[in-house]
Every structure is written in C-alpha cells, then in structure tokens.
Amino acid sequence: MTNLDTASALNIPASVATLQYKLRSEPEKIQLQIINELIAVGDAGLAVLMEFLLERQPGLDQGRSSKTPIKVVEAAVYQALFNTRATQVVDFLQQHFPTGTVPLRSQHNLDYAPLQQILAKQEFEAADKSTIQKLCELAGSAAVQRKWIYFTEIESLASVDLQTINALWLAHSNSRFGFSVQREIWLGVGKNWDKLWEKIGWKSGNNWTRYPNEFTWNLSAPRGHLPLSNQLRGVRVIAALLDHPAWFE
Question: Which domain holds residue 62?
C-alpha cells in the first residue's frame, strides 16, 4: 500500500500523509520535529501518531540492559500524545500503552509507573525527587526512612531497576538526561569530577549550583544535568552509582 493509499484508507489529507511518510523514514532529529507538526494538525495528525506507535509496539518490549538502545522517537510520540489529553488519545494509550513505551521491569516489584507519568509530563524536578525515592526503596527500609542513601548501599541496588530508571530518563529527555549520560560524560573527562561538575552544570567556577532554584528543570539544561543522583551528599554516592555493574551488562 502506498503512502497516499494509506492516507485515503484513514481519511488522512495528502499533506498529512507526507508527514506520516517522513515520520517513518527520516533521521531521528527530523522525526522529532515532525511529531510536533502532526500534533498541530489535529485529529488527522493524532491518528497518524497513534498508528505509528502501534506499528512500533512489537519492538518496544525487548530485553532491557544498559546497552539496549532507547526508542527515543517512540517515547516522544507517546509523550506528545499523552500531553494532548484528547479523549480518544487517552483511551488509546490506556488500552495499548498503559505504562508508556519503556518496559517497567523491577527485580523487587517496584512500581515505576508514577515516575514514567511524571517524566512524560516533563516535570523534571518532581521526577528527580521520585527517582531519589525509588533509589531509597531499592536500598531498603532504613534508606526510605532517612530519605537518602549511603554510598555503601549503591552496589546492592538491583541492576534491572537502575536500568529501568535510567531508560525512563533517557526516553523522556531525548537522551539528554540519565545516569548513563552522566557516566559517558564522566568517562569522557577522564573521571575528573571538577570537569564533570562544570560539564553538567552542577558547579560554575568555585560556586556550587544551589538546590533547587539554581538547577534547570527542563530540556534547556546541560546534557547530563539530571537526575541529581544525591549529589548534595558528596561525590561518593555518584561515584558508586556511575561504577555500578548495571552499566557493564
């Protein structure tokens, strides 16, 4: 079936069908731009985006590890649809993608759906707080009670859970935020902490970025800016986190 045949079958205007074709065939950067164009079209654009997600659904639920590529475009389509709050879209997402496009795997049966929903709304400050809460839950009841984790507790955190948290941050930030992004930058500066702090916007000169108002809670932040990884309690927590076995699997 040709591009125009598909458009006719779905009652989609030819101009929208062109965007549909580009969404399927263009490089990722252009695909991300086309998503917004389709949202602006209205119902016909929403129909294209929903069809696109259904087409990609079989490839989304794959084994998740630190080396599994994140489906950034699919996550962006889901996110754009999610934030329209259109009735037909809400029903569609609840039926086919109730927990988004990232498999929410957990060794300890933790529920990552709330974190996924917060990230889909691009509420990054709330997502950062939720992430710290989840790390505490992984570390145990004592960490939950104190609301922060010791660096000695990091190694025991389940790899699959860290990979899920990381995948959610990657998917809903166009791969700008996440533990693996911070690790990549850290390795790129030769594990030099001072250079890392500058690169990710946690320090400027001799001045530390003050929590929370001086942090940037949107996608204009430097790459790797989030999540905070408990950075307010020194380097040992993030050092243990970036060296966790999850990133070698």
Answer: 3-96
